[in-house]
Amino acid sequence: MKVILREDTSGVSEVIGTILILSMTVVLFSVIIIWVGSIPTPVAQSRLDLRSQLDPIYNAAGVEVGVNITLTHQGGEAIAPVPTIIYVTSQRGTNPPTTSIFTLHKYNLVLGNGLLDGTDSVWDIGERWNYNTPALRSTDAITVTIVDTSKSQVVWSAPMNAPQGTRPPVFIDKWADGVWATDTIDPVQAQLGFYLFAKVTDPDGDLNPNSVYATITAWYGSGTACATPQKMKDDGVFPDKAAGDSVFTFGASVCTNPPYPALSWAGSIILLNATDLKGHQTTTRLVLDVVQQTGGGGGTTTIPSSLWQYIGFVQIRTGEVWISNLSDAGGYDSASRYQPYRVTKALLNGNGGALFHFKMANHGNTTIFIDGYTQAFFVNTQSSSGTALFISAPCDPTIQPGAGGVAAYPGTASTTNFQYAHAGLPAGCKAGIPPGVFDINLLDQEKGGTPYVVLMYPKAPFTTGAANNWANVGTYYLSILVSGMSGPSNYTYAMLTGTGQPNPFNCAGLGVNYNPINHLSDPIVACRTSWYAQVIPFVGMTIVG
Questions:
Q1: Which of 510, 506, 486 shows the shortest CA–CA distance to 496?
Q2: DSSP labels, 87-99
Q3: Where does the pLDDT of residue 384 fall: very low under 50, low under 70, confident under 90, or very high at 90 and above?
Q4: pLDDT tens for each residue of 448-499
Q5: How far are the Cα atoms of 75, 120, 148, 196, 365 from residue 80, in angstroms, in the given order?
Q6: Which domains does the chain have, with CATH numbers?
């Protein structure tokens, strides 16, 4: 029998394959186990359901004075006091955000926050946390965030909004403008007037359009209507620019027209308030910025306002001097007049003698009260002699100047009480005679105040008498001395002597009997007067035979 031997490896292959499959399975599951084991254990999440409520707080006048925030725990885990921090973040307008930080505790009336319910400091379901503060307003952007510091987790965060119908009006913007006609906001310049604007809205849509007012505190103590709240309007009637655009306007009023504001108003407060139809009120304030005039009255000044004090307040132009005669039947305002620049002795000395007229205006910012020492002084260039002619008072323009048409200027050498600064003086003179003052023009110093014509012929102060005899021919230099007192800055004659006129510095003693000599040491520095003297080198006068 023949035996045949063969090599058969099929059994070995099956065993090896089985071992390989088992090895791969072990390795794969090992990798999966390692990967799953490397995944971090999830942090336990806190679930919290809160109901938030923000209520504005109003005083008896309807003005919002704070807010009341209440958070009610409606579901989820109880909140422990130790790891819990409550952040209240607020932002008002464009101001930077501010954040207040609180911990959980029972309500503390002094602190104004804490848990209103429960017997401990753990915040359980159904309990309320409250924050009452005068520092916030319902119009602020307020967010409350609760953080669990043990888990470094924000457990709840939400914005706070007041319920519909409880919110007051909001002042979005407010400003003062020195020039109404331009679209830009122009600086408010002293004595040139200004306008007030406020953009007001109401988140509930129930703004009362008749309730927006401005109070200019610079008028406080004046006793005038300007010290009371002034209604701002959004009706499209000047000075309001467009009806219904939510921009309320106040201006074109005796309270804001020239000669206001005074420079002293700079930094003063303007109070603004608005009320909705439910009586909720909002107040805010505007600081008024007032600057010196940059271009004089209305931009027409060619000499800067500040330079007039060096040039001299009272000025005269070449063509505003003339001569009439004391015996002129047409009176001191007669059309029979002539210029002094080249004149004969006969013309000066004839017909009762010469009466000089000097038409002058005040370009300063203080009213000048003239006294009897005001004079014109003539110096002969060919000798050292001089001639002084003093002021006289216009009395009646319908009769000859030398026969009562002009009178002695009121006062004496020892009593310069400025009586003539009031109409009707000197006694017995015709009504309507202008007072002896150089008034001011607060709007345009270049133009100056209403001109006053000074009459001069007496050879001594506070007298009349015979006219000067011009005996010598030659050339004379003529200078004018203005003597008297100056009133307080930026007060016109009408403001000083009129009743019901604006009184920005609350000066006492104003009215028809105002006398500047009584205010040299006024308790209010801005109301003080001072002595005034100014020499005006004027023209030359040539006298021929």
A1: 510
A2: EEEEE-TTSPPEE
A3: confident
A4: 899 999 999 999 999 998 999 998 899 999 999 999 999 998 888 988 987 6
A5: 14, 10, 9, 53, 73
A6: 48-160 (2.60.40), 170-291 (2.60.40), 305-544 (no CATH)
